[in-house]
Amino acid sequence: MHEMECRVLSIQSHVVRGYVGNKSASFPLQVLGFEVDSINSVQFSNHTGYSHWKGQVLTADELHVLYEGIKLNNVHHYDYVLTGYTRDTSFLEMVVDIIQELKRANPNLVYVCDPVLGDHGSMYVPQNLHPVYKNKVVPVADIITPNQFEAELLTGKNISTEKDAVEVMDLLHKMGPDTVVITSSDLPSRLGDRFLVSLGSQRTMMPDGTKSTQRVRMEIPKVDAVFVGTGDLFAAMLLAWTHHYPNDLKTACEKTFSVMHHVIQRTISYAHELAGPGRRPSPPQLELRMVQSKADIEDPAIVMEATVLTL
Questions:
Q1: Which residue in 88, 142, 232, 296 is the catalytic one?
Q2: pLDDT tens-digit profile of 78-110?
Q3: How many Cα atoms sit within 13 Å of 236 on the Cβ side?
């Protein structure tokens, strides 16, 4: 008996050099046994944290043409769709149309969405993407990974306490997704100011038809460096580990955050080694050490413990 393969459609940015978007998602998912079909929403020489970049942006029409090609060959059967950063409303709306069609073909399809809008109080995509995410994307998503700012924007509610965060996650559940992970927040950590707080919430349908909600909290060590591609890696790992632990958000989060920790620690050590004593690493030196982290991606040592919230 062959094990059923799991197929992911990943619609994300692509860079020639480094690990962002599809490259941050595809390799780790493939290592964990997923088949990944990638559509590159942009194709750049490198990420935009470098001094220079060149490349092309895929339009909504071009996305539609690619999808039509997949459909004509009757190979548009997916278990997961994964999306990340985009700057264009018509492209985002086309993504929603594709997901709705794929869900009609496979009602069990799971859509994992990183709703990239901004961080620390400011948007880094055009304002007109906000209503598209809120009214069209989030309602068709099954798993979302906003940061605090994005969760607040999508719900219109501020988070200043853990109770606020739980209420925001409940509001997001009402909008559609059964799994919500607020990847980072400004809430005070119980371990001190060198840690940040992440929170997750998962609604599960019980055999008797009622819904049960598991909520978790994690304390994540802060790192004094700017990485690009970590959000894409996070969403991909949450996809993988919720697949393996569908009704156990605590374990899925511990695995996901532990992978992140191992990759980031390996990257920062390497970057400091290259930069030399007392010098800040440059963007090329801070490219994620993805291939070197293969063993950690496959079987992460658990270094991040989640606390189940009892409210």
A1: 232
A2: 999 999 999 899 999 999 999 999 999 999 999
A3: 36
